[in-house]
Protein 1
Amino acid sequence: MAASGSLAQTLGITKEGVPDVLDMAEEKISYDPNYVCPVVRTNFEDERNILKRDSDGDGIVDLWDDCVDSTPGAMVDDFGCEAKEPEPSAADFTLDDAQIIDSFKVNIEFASNSTDVLPEYENNLQDVIDALNANPNSGVIIHGHASLDGDAAYNQRLSERRAKAVASLLMTKADIAPRRITAVGYGESRPLVNEESEAANARNRRIEAAIIQLPSNE
């Protein structure tokens, strides 16, 4: 380092007003091990109140509330802003608790162990479509049933899948909000005939549609 300094002096290089590197290296760096950075403290109770404060009483604390002036009692979303009441859905009801307006036996037959709706049956939902269009506050529960022969667990799953296939076809064929349509499978639990004969199996293996009344948001 000394040689570098001598070379700079020999070459006439000067840095007026700027500490020489050698001078800086020779400076002693001192520190106080007991020095503590000053911290501004607030009252603990104030801090706790800030964390708990909910100015509009919507259940979302102000720290996470994007809308701190929501209307008292209004439904809000996860961000504390007013949200619309969810529209009634057919999925909120079952055959046991719904107000059933009308019922239809859907004339759709399935191949053995299949859930595919054959093209010749695609127009057999018109009565259901007409009933739904006649009452905008109605919905439909498509319910599938199985015969009593075979494995009960398998028949349960098959009835569910067939009901869903018909509900999906209904959504495709009609301009009806999906919330108004739901599907459920009852398997072997609701037979029309408590037998396992060929005739009984044909009656029990069925798809039905229950038109139900939905509550109005108005």
Protein 2
Amino acid sequence: MTQTSTQTESHRAESETATRPFTPARHPGAAIAGAVLGLALIGVGVTAIRDIAVQAELLDGQQWSRTAADWIAELSWQDWMWPAAAGLLVVGLALVWIAVKPRQRSHLRLTAPGLWTRPSDLARRCSAAVTELPGVYDADTIVTRRKVKALVQGRSSVADRDLIGSTLEDVVSVLESPPRVVVRLRFRDGRKVR
């Protein structure tokens, strides 16, 4: 293979990665398990330091690691070990699953290439746009990938459901795949309109 064809292939690979932007995702599930495992390893390190201090005769007592090793060496198979082995197998499989499962997406893709927004930010934007409409006192919005649900409180004589729906659709039109808009009206007199 020549150097020119290698440069062409590397240029092609770089351009493919440049056109595929990174998808924002939540923290990996293994982060929590890794933190717990890290704390356990810190405990092992503290035990090792204590054992070194005992061996150097800075502390009185027996070495914990040697005592634990002697106890394990004298063990013979007992009935309680079956459930313990099964439990450790389940824990191991769960940790493997946590390590390999894909992370959930945390952002929604906008129509502009390479731009993302959080659902909570879009919900705030929807609520702010709806509260500017005539006859609307308050708006609470929940945005998911598939649905925008707005609970709007207003005056029954002024608040217009169609105007609220079209305003919400305008706000979410910046998304690459706009979700379905659901508007629930609650008027000051206590009536609900679905």
Protein 3
Amino acid sequence: MGARLPDRAGLTPGAARPRCRAAGHFGGLTPRGRVEQRARAVAGGAPIERDGYFLQPTTLDQVSDGVRVVDEKQFGPVLPLISFRDEEGAIARANNTEYGLSASVWSADVEHAMTVAARIDAGQVSINGHAEAVFPHLPFAGHQQSGVGVENGPWGSYGFTETQVVAGPPRQHN
């Protein structure tokens, strides 16, 4: 959360309240939305009163597939906690989405976590962290509906280039 930009910039931090309310954004995080979706905020969950539209970092439990905060990209400081019975079920749930920007695998066994990470359909999978590899020299790309193309590194440059081959007889050098 940064400081408010000068009004002449025409920008404010966070999203505009009228737009968010009209579009129903964050609706599942309001007390009424949580009750309707049976989610429980175990940390955070309240708006931060200031310019813009900010929400406290929030952890939700009692959520499952089929709930907006789980099924849709929310790009907010919200972590829905979903229980699973076994590893195969967890991997299946992680891949049962139309999105795939980033994911994380948490485990005391890093080697096993690497094996699990390789099975997750996301552009970036971090071990015991989240978004740990967002650096200018590494490719950044989402899978499925989470983006087209690649940013960063030489891979990101390829999308802005057109390759041309000029073939002909050998050139004479003077």
